[in-house]
Amino acid sequence: MSKSKSFDYVLFAVIVILLVIGINMVFSASMYIDKEIYNDGFYHLKRQTVWAILGIVFMFITSKVDYKRYRNRKLIGLAMLITIFLLVIVLALPPVKGARRWIGFGGLGIQPSELSKIVLVVYLSDMLTRKGEKVKSFLKGVLPVLIISGLFAGLIIIEPNMSTSVIVMATAFSMLFVAGAKISQLSLILFIGCIGGFLLIKSADYRWRRFTAFLNPWADPLGNGYQAIQSLYALGAGGLFGVGFGQSRQKNYYIPEAQNDFIFSIIGEELGFIGVFIIILLFSILIWRGIRIAINCKDKFGTLLATGITSLIAIQSSINLLVVSSSMPVTGVTLPLISYGGSSLLFTLIALGILLNISRDI
């Protein structure tokens, strides 16, 4: 089951620190609203803590299981079928807040799209390892990866959840690059992907309104530009040292559900530039350790698996930080390990447990 070598303790420490900061900031961002809505200021804190404990348990399990065991083709195939089944089933369920993303279990919700990211990374790692030099061929190497990734992204975007589908495709792209696909082919895919992304944005009115609001949020300050403006107010109010933990004003109905996608804004307001810098530094260290693990891993499967997991964290955290700083259109992407969200936290910790296990092999 386990390897004799120890895992990357720097990576582990960063994960724990981010998780502790996240739990505290979820409490700070939600406590006042929780008192009014649920008559329990600890409502979101308790739920996030339960998911965090569950995630830590699974992280330790995956950190002990030899990552090479995931190359079992029957196991990978079964996981793929179950994931696709869940992605289809969720589309038949009643929408929650205008989207079909959650499957409920005893009052708790899980997002199949979060599971799909890990399963796809494992599957593509095995596929690209087996293909070897064939990855340089578009028809035999690149196209099969695009078809599988496109299937997952397509099912996710129907929910609708364009941001997660972008993360899925961007992660697949990074894995193709590391696997040795030709730069000319990847450049063409990137160009076509940008055009496709623009067409998807244009095809839905709400996406187009968000895009135009991003260009000038003050043109519609009470509509599509509202969240971006309130986020900038929060970040600007924090100054160098912040207004103090728990003292944010913007979390009080100005930023809707501040404990979710815009929790970084609350961090900026309460902990200031220093707090923002520390969070960015911690994510930078996490990504650096992930890249280091990928580069130094002794086998190609481990390298690709570490690349995929690190890419998921890097891409998702980058999108979130760009959104809250109004550097890209508003979209629903959580900040890994920080934002409130049970299934996102659980599967992120599972993936990081796998990354810790790979670090034993360098």
Descriptive account of the structure:
- InterPro entries: FtsW, FtsW/RodA, SpoVE.
- One of its GO terms (molecular function) is lipid-linked peptidoglycan transporter activity.
- One of its GO terms (cellular component) is plasma membrane.
- With about 350 residues, the protein is mainly α.
- It has one domain (about 10-360).
- It is built from twelve helices and two strands; from the N terminus they run H-H-H-E-E-H-H-H-H-H-H-H-H-H.
- The chain has helices at about 10-35, 45-65, 75-90, 110-130, 140-155, 160-180, 185-205, 205-215, 225-240, 265-295, 300-325, 340-360, and strands at about 105, 110.
- It has a two-stranded antiparallel ribbon.
- Strand 1 (about 105) and strand 2 form a beta hairpin.
- Helix 1 packs antiparallel against helix 10 (about 265-295) and helix 4 (about 110-130) packs antiparallel against helix 5 (about 140-155).
